[in-house]
Design brief:
InterPro entries: Extradiol_RC_dioxygenase, Glyas_Bleomycin-R_OHBP_Dase, Glyas_Fos-R_dOase_dom, VOC_core. The protein is built from 5 helices and 16 strands. The strands form 2 sheets. Strands 2-3-4-1-13-16-15-14 form an 8-stranded mixed sheet. Strands 6-7-8-5-9-12-11-10 form an 8-stranded mixed sheet, with helices on one face. Strand 11 and strand 12 (about 200-205) form a beta hairpin. The chain is an alpha+beta fold and about 300 residues long.
Length: about 300
C-alpha cells in the first residue's frame, strides 16, 4: 500500500472565459489568485490558480479558460462536485453572497452528516460548501475569517458501478480508508492526511461525461517531495498502472495516470511552491511564463484577454 499521499493537492478544471472565471473565484468566493501563467501545451490559454494566501496544497483550484469553449456534458467517469470547507454557521452568509453573484442551482443538503450548500459556477461547474471545524487559515482580503473558505473538503467522483468498485480498490491502495456509505455515495478518507482528505464516490448509471467548460480535467494528490513521488510512481507501475514520467510544472513536479473509473489522477509535490518566482506578497499579479514560452511573451500578452486584479 502507498503511504506517501497526504490528500488532495489541487483540482484543475476547464472554463470558457478567463475574466469571468477570475471574477468568480476572487470576488464571489473570495479566494486569492496565487498564479497567473499559461497552459504548458497551449500557451495562448491561461492557467489560473486560486487558493489561500500561499497556495497551500489542498486549497488550490486551477483553471484552463479556453475562450468560448462549449460546456461539458455531465456523465460517468468524472468529478461531478468539488467541495470546499467553510466554518460551521457560515452557510447562510454564503447563500446570501452567492445569490448576489447570481450563482445558480443553490440548495442545501445533508451528506453523511455534513451540512452542504450546493451551487453552480459560471460554466455550470458543480461546487459545494461544507460546514465543518477546520484549522486552516483562510485568505481574507474580501471575506471575513469567520466565514471564509479554508480549502478543499472533498472531490466527488461520479462513476459507473464497475468503475466505482475498481476506483475504491485504487483509493485503498493509495492509503484511503472507507469511512461510510449512504445510498449510492461511499466516502473514503485519508487518515492522518492533510485537511483536504476526503474522496466521495457516487455510483451512477448512464453515458460517459463529455469534457468541456465546467468540467474537472483532473484531480491531484499531494506528496511531500520528489522522493516520495518516485516511490508512489514505482508502486503504481508495479501494480500495472500506466504512469507518465515526472514532469516539471514549475511550482510542483507531477505524474499522471488514468484511474479505472475514468478520472485522470495526478500526484503532485508540495515543493517548490508558488513563491519560487514571485514574492509572496505579490502572488498572482504578474504573468509568469514557463521558460520554454518566455520568448513568446510579447505575442502572448497581446493575445491573452486582460484580467482585472
Amino acid at each position: 500500500m502507498i503511504k506517501q499521499i497526504n490528500g488532495l493537492h489541487h483540482v484543475t478544471s476547464l472554463a470558457s472565459s478567463a475574466p469571468e472565471n477570475n471574477a468568480f473565484f476572487t470576488k464571489a468566493l473570495g479566494l486569492r489568485r496565487v498564479k497567473k501563467t499559461v497552459n504548458f501545451d497551449a500557451p495562448d490559454v491561461y492557467h489560473l490558480y486560486y487558493g489561500d494566501e500561499t497556495g497551500s496544497p489542498g486549497t488550490v483550484m486551477t483553471y484552463f479558460p479556453f475562450p468560448n469553449a462549449a460546456r461539458g456534458r455531465a456523465g460517468t467517469g468524472e468529478v461531478g462536485t468539488t467541495a470546499f470547507a467553510v466554518p460551521k454557521g457560515a452557510l447562510p452568509f454564503w447563500e446570501e453572497r452567492l445569490a448576489a453573484y447570481n450563482a445558480e442551482d443553490m440548495r442545501r443538503e445533508n451528506r453523511l452528516g455534513d451540512e452542504r450548500l450546493l451551487f453552480k459556477g459560471p460554466d455550470g461547474d458543480g461546487f459545494a460548501l461544507v460546514a465543518q471545524d477546520d484549522p486552516r487559515t483562510p485568505w481574507t482580503a474580501d471575506v471575513s475569517e469567520d466565514v471564509a473558505i479554508r480549502g478543499f473538503h472533498s472531490a466527488d467522483m461520479r462513476l459507473s458501478p464497475r468503475g466505482a468498485a475498481a476506483s475504491a480498490e485504487l483509493l485503498t491502495f493509495m492509503g484511503y480508508e472507507k469511512e461510510a456509505t449512504d445510498g449510492d455515495v461511499t466516502r473514503y478518507r485519508m487518515a492522518g492526511g492533510n485537511d483536504a482528505q476526503v474522496i466521495d464516490i457516487t455510483q451512477v448509471n448512464g453515458p460517459a461525461a463529455d469534457q468541456g467548460a465546467g468540467s474537472v480535467h483532473h484531480i491531484a494528490f499531494s506528496v511531500d517531495d520528489r522522493a516520495a513521488q518516485l516511490d508512489v510512481r514505482k508502486a503504481l507501475l508495479d501494480t500495472g498502472y500506466q504512469v507518465t514520467p515526472v514532469i516539471d510544472r514549475d511550482y510542483f513536479w507531477a505524474i499522471y495516470f488514468r484511474s479505472p473509473g475514468g478520472v485522470l489522477f495526478e500526484v503532485a509535490t508540495n515543493e517548490p511552491g508558488f513563491d519560487r518566482d514571485e514574492d509572496a506578497a505579490h502572488l498572482g499579479e504578474a504573468l509568469k511564463l514557463p521558460t520554454q514560452h518566455e520568448h513568446m511573451r510579447d505575442r502572448l500578452e497581446q493575445m491573452l484577454t486582460p484580467i482585472e486584479d
